[in-house]
Amino acid sequence: MALTFDDLLRRARELPRTGRRAILGIAGSPGAGKSTLAERLVRELNGTGRHPWVTHVPMDGFHLADAELERLGRRDRKGAPDTFDAAGYAALLGRLREPRDGEVVYAPAFERVLEQPVAGAIPVPPTARLVVTEGNYLLCEEGAWGRVRALLDEVWFCAPDEEDRFRRLVARHVEFGKPYDEAVAWVRRSDERNAALVARTRPRADLVVPASALPAPPGDG
After folding, report:
1. Residues 109, 117: contact at Cβ < 8 Å?
2. Measured at the alpha carbon of residue 203, what is the angle toward residues 202 and 209, in degrees to the nearest 5?
3. What pTM was estimated for this model as a whole?
4. 160 and 32 in contact (C-beta within 8 Å)?
5. pLDDT value, residue 169
6. Fold entry, domain 5-213
7. Coil, strand, or helix at residue 208?
8. Beta-strand relationship, 207-210 and 154-159
């Protein structure tokens, strides 16, 4: 039988089975639907309860600021593995895995309108039993990225239709300010190079999520 979104819900719900907090990673290439899947899982698992027990912590909050990318000469490679604070991300995952009693852990977010990280934007309360984190490089082994996989209970890899992924990625860049031709050029020059790197990490995933189980992004279709 084909994997469904309901199957994913059941699998995610069972992760904190030992009573301790679990961390689910969702990996995939740029535009693969990682954020949409994570947000839908969190929304469905929390339901209408007064005390949410699942929190979404994206990897994108660890983008280096544009000013630092300019200093390092990496501004035109924004989104590549070396344009993130991978060590900081791994350190946060370590804190999330072993929180102190009663501790609220704050994580950074990424503001897409500004295209900049925002510190301390996501509170992870001590009542959170499952943290869903997503990003391109969760399964990478180079440098500090190599610390990440061991801190995650499971990692799922999003495998959408590649034409849809490309189209949605271009549309995202256009939505946040790039002219269409510039958006296409950026995707082909930068995002697709990163996508090829991410695709090579797919065998390290615990589960590959096919297009049929991925929820459609808002406004798509």
Report:
1. yes
2. 55
3. 0.92
4. yes
5. 85
6. Rossmann fold (3.40.50)
7. strand
8. parallel
Residue of 150, 156, 211, 128 whose CA lies nearest to 25: 156
Burial 78-103 (b: 16+ CB within 10 A, else e): ebbbebbbbeebbebbeebbebeeee
For range 79-90, the mean pLDDT:
96
Q: What is the per-residue pLDDT across 172-201, written as a single tens digit (0 to 9) for each?
A: 888 888 899 998 988 888 888 999 999 999
What is the domain partition of the chain in residue ranges?
A: 5-213
Phi first, then psi: give them for residue 107, nearest 5 degrees.
Answer: -120, 150
**H or E, element range at 54:** strand 54-56
Place of tokens 């999003």: 158
The pair of three-digit structure tokens given for residue 137, joined into one six-digit string: 């490089």
Q: What's residue 221's pLDDT?
A: 44
